[in-house]
Amino acid sequence: MHLAFLTPEYPHPSSTPYAGLGTSIKNLAEGLIQKEIKVSIFVYGQKEDLKFTENKIEFHFLRQRNYPFLGWYLYRRFLESYIKKAILHEKIDILEAPDWTGITAFMKFKCPLVLRLHGSDTYFCNLENRKQKKKNFWFEKTALSHADHLLSVSDFTAEKTKQIFNLNRNITVIPNSVDLDYFHPARDTKPSETLLYFGSIIRKKGVLELAEIFNLVSEENKSVKLILAGKDVKDIRTGRSTLDIFMEKLSTKASKNIDWLGNLPYNKVKNLISKAGIVVLPSFAEALPMTWLEAMAMEKPLVTSNIGWANELIIDGKTGFTVDPKDHRLYANRILQLLDDHDLARNMGKAARKQIEDKFSNRVVINQNFNFYSEIIKSDY
């Protein structure tokens, strides 16, 4: 079996910046390699063209081409032509792409095309209740309609996507997964009064709500600290730095206990998770976030949002706390509860790890993907 993935991002030193999408593909690719499956990765929109093999995965980094007219169409045509040749010469059995921007909207291949729903632009615009460019909706709807098979990383994302696009198609749900050997609990950790937020500093992740929440926490616990790790993103509503808006919302007391570390390498983020007492992720818009999986795998108690996908990951009160991010008082109280009750925090972290072991580990999820691909090959050939 030879599987290929088309993606705008991938965790690699030669790649442009990446987030959860790239990480989830990396976990899947490396897990499939261990099952003796051949894997190729096509990473588009890059700074330069590169082709190389690393850790048994064949990479094709494809430079972003610029055209004087209809660039969106001509670049897609370039990608289609390049991948078609690879499918023929390298005998690729299945190509998978994400739903984001409908990159495969006008592409046709001589192998089955799987579209995995990690969250389209339309999906996120709907969750955030903001306007979307009509062409983006068109691209994504066309891509969903033309794909041979549809996958989703969560039931919530599958159902929401069906609703938004008025889609009457079967969607198989296979969640993202995490490497439990890499994301493991630290030994001999002492209770910590450090809160950690990691991910992009952006409105849709609930960062601005977190400022109000931390003000309330700081009123009752003067020693608690909040660390932010992630890239500062220009706010979509104001055009300003989201970090600047965040800092303006802080009380004088709270602002003294904030540390923003910027965008960090994978290993440094892992170290921060290890040292944190509580991970706080009050996001408004996700599909099935890798950040949550990674923190849970490291036995960290989480206080997250309570929207859709959250109920597929976290059992409220057992493996974490799920709270409406706009309910600042309740959210702050849940954090304070964990800070005051070390046994609760420790037990919640252990239950979170067990949840990951049972449902979201590479061991479990890679097999689900393998069975899915195997059925496609049986039915399409």
Short description:
The chain is an alpha/beta fold and 381 residues long. It has helices at residues 20-34, 71-90, 121-128, 134-146, 155-165, 207-220, 242-249, 252-255, 266-275, 290-297, 310-313, 328-340, 342-359, 362-380, and strands at 2-7, 38-46, 50-54, 57-63, 94-98, 113-117, 149-152, 172-173, 194-198, 225-229, 258-260, 278-281, 302-304, 321-322.
* Average pLDDT: 95
Q: Number of helical runs?
A: 14
* Widest sheet: strand ordering: 3-4-2-1-5-6-7-8
From the alpha carbons, calculate the radius of gyration and give it in angstroms. Answer: 21 Å
Portion in helices: 40-55%
Sequence of secondary-structure elements: EHEEEHEEHHEHEEHEHHEHEHEHEHHH
The low-pLDDT segments are none
Please report which band the strand proportion falls in: under 5%, 5-15%, 15-25%, 25-35%, 35-45% or over 45%: 15-25%
- Write down the overall geometry: globular
Q: Major sheet: size, sense and barrel closure?
A: 8 strands, mixed
